[in-house]
Write a structure and sequence with these properties.
globular, alpha/beta, 11 helices, TIM Barrel
């Protein structure tokens, strides 16, 4: 089994859920996930944030704020609008709405985006409790889980954006629903990278419950990212995850993705010493993406320049 940083474009486009999990495991803590907010304009004109994250060394790209009711990735779906002669705001809004309608009926939409980005593609799905005003297309619902499976996402991330009030019980119920619908087709990642209005997770038993409910990979806060999460607590949580036979992901989701590269390197090494299988970097560096150089710094810290440059340059090889 190839390690994830050795996979070619052809591998990435054809790997199954089982293949992806085995590839991550074979990588011995050297898998990197970058999250990007695809509802924000890209920080570099002419290239989407997911493509930029891939170019700086990410193996897996998670789309945040993807709307299943209105699928649209800024930087990809609108890349030709100015070339097409649309320059006024009203014209652009009208054209975006037309393209959203087209995307809604395109069963290959995510697979086409994956072919452009050239990485494993996932999506955040949030089990937002009743009473919270939140777009239906971004919630974890049975309808959206079915769409995620049909569209061909490689994985989903059951988690919580700020101020959503999502509790541990909400995440647990979301895992149960996802395991029933996604089965052997889609990797399930679940956990919290910050409080999100519902409190941080410190109890290893909560982690075990997530794994037992059907999460293939359990997400926890990286050391140094939330109050009280040090390397020792992180190690104990990861040990609890590994005892269940599942993989562990440490997440930087507290805007530290916009910190200095030295901070990123410290977090990366603490996470690796704690036993993380995957390291995640969030989308709050600039507009919807970590500082690109911090994605690269995280990659270099956990696997060196040789494998980082391989990942950066291996994007479209068949």
């Amino acid at each position: 089994m190839k390690r994830i940083f050795e996979l070619s474009f052809g591998d990435i486009m054809s790997y199954s859920k089982k293949d992806l999990l085995e590839s991550i495991k074979a990588s011995e803590g050297r898998a990197l996930m970058a999250e990007t907010d695809i509802a924000k304009q890209p920080i570099v004109y002419g290239v989407s944030n997911p493509e930029l994250a891939a170019a700086f060394g990410a193996d897996m790209i998670t789309l945040n704020l993807f709307d299943f009711d209105a699928p649209f990735i800024l930087g990809i779906d609108d890349c030709d609008m100015k070339i097409s002669g649309i320059h006024d705001i009203a014209g652009m809004v009208d054209e975006v709405n037309k393209r959203i309608c087209r995307n809604q009926t395109d069963g290959e939409y995510v697979k086409k985006a994956k072919a452009i980005i050239g990485r494993f593609l996932g999506v955040n799905m949030e089990p937002v409790p009743d009473g919270i005003d939140y777009p239906r297309g971004r919630k974890l619902t049975r309808e959206n889980l079915i769409k995620a499976k049909q569209l061909g996402f490689d994985y989903i991330v059951i988690t919580a954006n700020p101020k959503t009030g999502i509790t541990n019980r909400d995440i647990l119920e979301g895992i149960n629903a996802a395991a029933e619908i996604l089965g052997d087709d889609t990797v399930i990642i679940a956990g919290k990278m910050h409080g999100a209005g519902g409190g941080n997770i410190y109890d290893p038993q909560v982690i075990r419950d997530f794994a037992g409910a059907g999460a293939d990979i359990v997400l926890i806060c990286a050391p140094g990212t939330v109050p009280g999460m040090d390397q020792d607590l992180c190690r104990r949580q990861i040990e609890a995850i590994h005892e269940t036979g599942k993989l562990a992901l440490t997440a930087i989701g507290t805007s530290q993705e916009g910190s200095s590269s030295q901070i990123i390197e410290q977090i990366a090494l603490m996470s690796k010493m704690a036993g993380a299988d995957i390291q995640h970097i969030g989308d709050a560096g600039y507009g919807g993406i970590a500082l690109p150089e911090n994605i690269m710094a995280l990659s270099v810290a956990i696997r060196g320049k040789r494998h980082t440059y391989r990942r950066m340059g291996y994007s479209m090889r068949k």
